[in-house]
Amino acid sequence: MAHAPVGLRECRGIPFDIIDASKNGGKSVMVFKSKDFTQGLESVTIPLGGAKAENLYVLQAAANLNGGAAKFTLVYTDGSKSKTLQAWQNIRVCNWWRPEDGNNYKVAFVTSNALCDEVGMVAMEWKNECPEKSIQSLVIESYNKDTIMIVGAVTLSHKKESAFAGDPVSSQARRVVKTDAKVAPKSASKAGAKGDKKPAATVSTSRGADRFFFPPQSSGEEARNWSVVKKNTGAYSEKLAGPQAADSIVRDLLETKDQDALNAMLTALGYAFEQKNRRDVAGDVFDKLRANNDLYSTIVAADLLLKAIQCVDSVRGARSYPDSLCDRAAALLDHPDPVVQSLAEWTLALRLKKQQASSIRISDSFGPEDRQKPWFRAWTARAAARTLGDDYGRQLIQVNRHRTLEGLKVEMEKTTSRMSRFVAAPGSDPDKAQAHQGSLAQALAAAQAALAQGDLQIGHVAYIAARTAARDVIAACRPEFPNEGVAFYTNYNMSGGDSNVNAAVTNGTNRPGGDIYWKQGADPAIPAAAFDVPAKIGDGSVRGMDLTWEADKILFSYWIQPLDPKAPTGWDRSKNAHLFELDVAARRITQLTKSPGDNDIEPCYLPDGGVIFASDRSSFGNQCAGAFLQDKRCTTLYRIDPRRADKPVAISNNKDFDRHPHILNDGTVVFMHWEYQERDLYHLQTAWRCRPDGTNMDAFYKQHIGVPYSIRDVQQAPNSQLCVATAQGHHDGHNGPVILFNPSLGINNPDTLQLVTPGVASVEGGLGPLYQQVVPEGGVENRGGSYINPFPMSDKAFLVGHDMEGVGLYQTSPGESDFAIYYIDVWGNRELIHRDREMSCFMPHPLRKRPRPPVVADTVDPKATFATAFVEDVYRDLPGVARGAVKYLRISQALMLPAPVNYDDPLFDFNHLHWLPGDATGVHFGHWTFAPRRTVGLVKVEPDGSAYFKVPAGTPVYLQALDENYCEVRRMRTSFTLQRGEFRGCTGCHESRLSAVGSQPVYPQTTLNKGPQTPEPPSWGDCYVLDYRKDIQPTFDRLCVRCHGQGKTEGGLDLTGRPVAGFTQSYRSLFGIKPGDPQIINDLEWHARINPEFKDDAYISGKEGQKAIKLMQDNQWPGMLVSISNKNSRDASVTQPYQFGSNKSLLIRKLLDDPKHRAEVKSRFSDEEWLKLVTWVDYNANFHSTLVDKSKWNTEQKLTRVPYYLPSPWIPADLNPSFCNKTDTSIVPDMLALKGGLPKE
User: Are both 773 and 805 inside the same structural domain?
Assistant: First the structure.
């Protein structure tokens, strides 16, 4: 952008003083440091001279955008600071290539360079929270991760109103200048900062702090840095081999006074013991510390044992944890200090649970001989009455305030403050609290006295007494506290081995075990009563449960897992999960579903008495691909309607995953919806909603919010708009921090997100600005650990599963073996309700009657064979597109992967058909989508922009707006599904959302009076997938190779169909690979297996291949003639008009804009040839239309390509929910007659 605007320029109504690089030593912007751009700035302080401002505007952009970009802080002249503002991926900043308007920013200018015709910067708006204060300086800090942050200028404004007010959202900013210059300067030291009369500010640099998993919560930042832990782990791994290792370690531990640094050291030792299998040294260190015979050394010694087991992550590691260390821990169970007892008890609990949670084989589990060991008998003999005190000790340990009086003082101050705010909060009953506040005051006074005496042991005793007294106040004065008790279920680990969203129904799960429990009362010492489900049904494990609003029946999923001594694991892995209902009073269990080969999980009651659940009975293969051989199927939603037959009916037909259904206050269903539809694989686990009959299915929240990547287990708080959920990454389990959000304030509004449990273990992709958006009351403080299955008692208090296990700030993944049931609230209270000795506890429900949500009437017409959709005005929300430009809508379907059950080869029960040649997280040449597409048909758009048309019932489809040449104007990168007889309307052309009938103004009657159009299928049919070699290459052969052939390559373009490395040269040419150049590939192993005849061709693979393919995905590879969307973009933004597709492709533009080629198109292209070409480009220009069948790989090392065998899209999906590669005519007698046909009237 060497020729970008300079000087005092107005960009989107905002004046910026942009430095002229030619007059400033070649420097015009500040470029911040990243892990790959190490010469950048770590932090910058811009003096602002005491100016005041209502709003600040920062001219900025980012390169290599992924996650956090920069942090902004205002320093006021009175010494105070503003809240740190975080610029995160597509939240306050976007990539400088093809910038677009987004959250809190708008495109300031767009120019060109040699590699991209649209590069530019955005203006970020920041409302000053203290406009009355004078500003001393603005501090900008780099995250120093992937993203390179670029800042060009800063403008201060005294105007209260936003400069963006009235400026419509648009990515079509004014083009300033075209240039062939290369991209940004490598370093800079000066930027413009413009106030009303402020001169450009000079910039000073300072060393910035490294980035943590989450913001630091106290002093000692460097000590709490994960990189420090990793460095220390390596150092201690080497030190363990030395002869004086124990003495050296003891000296290091005792000489380290900073408690955060000590925690980092202990964690590093834990990992070093694990990596080098030198826990014998841990025993020596423990003994030497204990020999000091003082409380501090004993606490550090007990800490060491705990860290050593916390850093174990496998059954092998757990089993190799020496009994000698467990014996040392057991000896501390009766220590006079209660926190030492807690450290010891926690260590032994994790020793057992880590082995149980990690073991798939029965033989690996904690067996009868293990239970005779002295340490185990001592641990199990511990009185239940000590459970609560032990847990308070754990909480003190988790926040690292247990070793010193200073730490305990901080914790007591927090407890005092928290209880004061809690009792005074609306909804608390001060009269009921009064009866217990005297005891609380006495306990707090005793704790203060202990602190004054300087006696840590007495202080620990007083702290636990104060927490116990505070619990009595909480239980008395808040109706949300579950004094009646809870229902829950147990499992060895997180929800039956479900450590990943796509592993919900894999048979590679944990071993059988667990039960459903009913606990009367909230005292942790009260035992819970089991319903003996295994005795009634057989061995297995629970996979989700729900409790009726009257608390009299329990609905649950149960995976049947019979014991089998002959099986490698000791149990039969071939069975499935089915639904059951438990009558609480009669203790009677009724089976609701039983479909061999199918798995029904995560059931939920409907207000009408029906059931909704997730199931893999649709037989869709998991498009995540992953390993070469795998057995994963997708789950979609099904319903059992008590008023009709008990056979489940499909209500969602998503090609990927729908999971975690729950009922909202209005009786509708909210669930996690995951769709691989070209918009990146990481951000797409969002919250969707539908009516119980499947109608009105639409995005509910986070459809276009980048981070957190996923939100799951959404439930709405009673009498509130707020919803509670957990946040996590794409590849995480459904545990993580507890969050709140309010979708009524905008389904894509990240500012409505609030963090209830700050400080939990890191999740994939991080939390972005949510780290700073803690609930106003403060939330529950954590250092590590995670939460699962939040149940809202109100919008302030929740029942949760909580695993406190972790290694503080250094835990890279949360624990999954020690979930217990807790009450938590926004004020920071965390109270244990129940912990099982050997298993984790999940899905708590209060034992109380709750208002039943209203019954939502069914609107599905069972006699209808299609649905109808109405677009009111396609030009609404279609910026930069002139009226009259859109002539058609193309209705398309992104296809499922067939995954039929009970395949002939027992090694491939399902998922033997794949599309991607490798993992979905990878980049694959020629496979630019997660699955191919088919065309349902075209409909015409009326001159006023409206369209009324039929849609297949139950088939997920998406729309593409087309111009007169049938070229894409805008693409919908999400799908929508309509049920039989459903009528849905949308207001314009966008990605979300379709609106409910009656929520918009009256639709144009002229279009409605014409009746719905029947989509016109293409000449190749609606059951056909376009194939490059069959459908595109013949056109090139007939019309193009005479000028662009092997002998004559005008413009250096070879469009011949000769095979090269598994592709054709013409296809390679379209992506800028010239004849004779090596084929660019990602996974050469996959490619060689699928294309063995080309194994000896020349390739560029590995990192270089990946880098090149990534540039192709971003349309940045030199010589590309087609423009595609990036399925791995890490971008959750809304698609803009002409962003990619045929209208953006140089190939199509040449054919349409060049007079010679346009004449050829008009005179020689047939209609079918042209439609195939532009449709193929708009379907992202994939090479193959076929699937790879791997069923013969194990026996014959053979792979074959098989075509899609597609039923008609017009067969209602509830009749043909299984998208197998075979047509089951027994389900629908007239299916063959309908195949390829039009919907019946």
Answer: yes
Please indicate, yes or no, if residue 124 is contained in any of the structural domains.
Answer: yes
Per-residue model confidence as pLDDT tens digits over 287-304: 999 999 999 999 999 999
* Whether residue 27 is found in the same domain as residue 146: yes
Q: Are 983 and 949 in contact (CB under 8 A)?
A: no
What range defines the domain where residue 172 resides? 7-205
Q: How far apart are CA 101 and CA 108, in angstroms?
A: 9
| CA–CA distance, 127 with 140 (Å, rounded to integer) | 16
CB 648 within 8 A of CB 654: no
How many CA atoms within 13 Å lie on the side-chain side of 1175?
Answer: 32
Report residue 303 as tokens: 């800490």
Rg of the Cα atoms in the chain: 32
In a domain? residue 66: yes
**C-beta separation of 653 from 1213 below 8 A:** yes
pLDDT digits (tens, 9 = 90+) for 1116-1157: 999 999 999 988 777 777 888 999 999 999 999 999 999 999
The whole-angstrom separation of Cα 455 and Cα 467 is: 18
In our burial notation (b when 16+ CB lie closer than 10 A, e otherwise), range 91-129 reads: bbbbbbbbbbbbbbbbbbbbbbbeebebbbbbbbbbebe
Euclidean distance between CA atoms 789 and 208, whole angstroms: 38
Q: Are residues 760 and 831 in the same domain?
A: yes
Closest CA to 774 of 814, 739, 803: 739
- The strand ranges marked E within 1036-1165 are 1059-1060, 1063-1064, 1079-1080, 1099-1100
**How would DSSP label each residue in 27-75?**
--SEEB--SS-TTSBSEEEEEEEEE--SEEEEEEEEES--SEEEEEEEE
**CB–CB of 93/143 below 8 Å?**
no
811 touches 783 (CB < 8 A): no
Mean pLDDT comparison of 629-643, 1077-1091, 1098-1112, 1164-1178, highest-scoring range: 1164-1178
**Residue 438 carries which side chain, given as an amino acid letter?**
G
pLDDT at 996: 40
- Residue 491: CB atoms within 10 A of its CB come to 27
**Cα distance between residue 1164 and residue 1040, in whole Å:** 11
**Cα dihedral 26, 32, 34, 37 in deg (nearest 10):** 10
Residues constituting the chain: 1241
pLDDT tens-place string over residues 392-445: 999 999 999 999 999 999 999 999 999 999 999 999 998 888 888 889 999 999
Whether cis (ω within 30° of 0) applies to the bond prior to 1203 is no
pLDDT in tens, 162-184: 888 765 443 333 333 332 322 23
The tokens for 529 are 């009563």
Whether cis (ω within 30° of 0) applies to the bond prior to 993 is yes
Q: 574 is written with which tokens?
A: 């071939």
pLDDT of 188 above 70: no
Adjacent-strand bridge partners of 933: 894
Q: How far, in Å, CA of 330 to CA of 343, rounded?
A: 10
Question: CB neighbours (10 Å) of residue 781?
Answer: 18
| C-alpha closest to that of 424 among 1015, 848, 909, 827 | 827
pTM, two decimals, is: 0.82
What is the Cα–Cα distance from 657 to 676, expressed in whole angstroms? 9
User: At which of 1152, 1184, 1216 does a domain end?
Assistant: 1184
Distance between terminal CA atoms of the chain? 58
Q: Residue 376, Cα to own-chain centre: how many angstroms?
A: 39
Hey, which of 61-65, 81-85, 621-625, 626-630 has the most confident mean pLDDT?
Answer: 81-85
Of 379, 333, 389, 374, the C-alpha closest to 352 is 379
Q: Do residues 98 and 90 touch, judged by C-beta distance below 8 A?
A: no
Q: How many distinct structural domains can be found in the chain?
A: 5
How would you write 617-671 as a 3-class SS string? Answer: CCCEECCCCCCCCCCCECCEEEEECCCCCCCCEECCCCCCEEEEEEECCCCCEEE
Verify that 197 and 269 share a domain, yes or no. Answer: no
